[in-house]
Amino acid sequence: MPYVALREPTGDEAWNLYCLRRAARLKRKLVGVYYSPQLRRLLAVFKVAPGDRIDEEVFERLDSSILEAAYRMECPPGCGRCCAKFSGAFALDAEVGELPPEFRQRVEAQPSRLVRTRRGYVRVYELGTGPAGMCIFYNAERRACRLEEELGRGYKPVVCLLTYCTVFASRGGKLYLKAAARRVGEGRELAYREVSEEEWRRALLRMSARRR
Q1: Which residues fall within 8 angstroms of residue 103, CB to CB, at 6 or more apart?
Q2: Is residue 66 part of a domain?
Q3: What is the dihedral of CA 119, 125, 127, 128, to 10 degrees?
Q4: By residue range, what is the domain housing residue 126?
Q5: On the chain, which terminus has fewer CB atoms closer than 10 Å, C or N?
Q6: Contact 110, 147 (CB under 8 A)
Q7: How many beta carbons lie within 10 A of that of residue 54, not counting itself?
């Protein structure tokens, strides 16, 4: 099966939302989000079947060699940094329609807006309406996403699946922490260093403490 990556966002919100809507249709085929040192960018990677229809304007083919050399972004259980404050989380209309009634009704009660794209309208539901921008589906006590825990990862909004702080990563069965970052031309250069499980755990505890 070939790999494809979502093309980088542009300054056009309507186009970006259209691309996310296309990606949402494939989110159960999401392999993960990777940082490629070669391309100096993050890649949202999907593994597609030969019969899958791929919009070449939205996705680009990806050579497996790039993926092998890339760092996979990780979201360690118990962190919740991206969900607890200023989450900016949102769900697209097509995703909301897949939710069971209890969850769907809660989303539909949130502020929303209709965005016209060049290929139809997309309704965007804001989810970061809790205290300090907390996502409405974030369980602060368990530091976990209710959608993922109760329904499965495939029911999380696509924007949540594609958003990472880039601090935690893995490659070839080893753990890494981000050591440095800088802008290089149009790309981003991220440096990672290999760490032990204990150092990874301590970094997670520090990250959790900052959230309080």
Answers
A1: 137, 147, 151, 155
A2: no
A3: 80
A4: 81-161
A5: C
A6: no
A7: 15
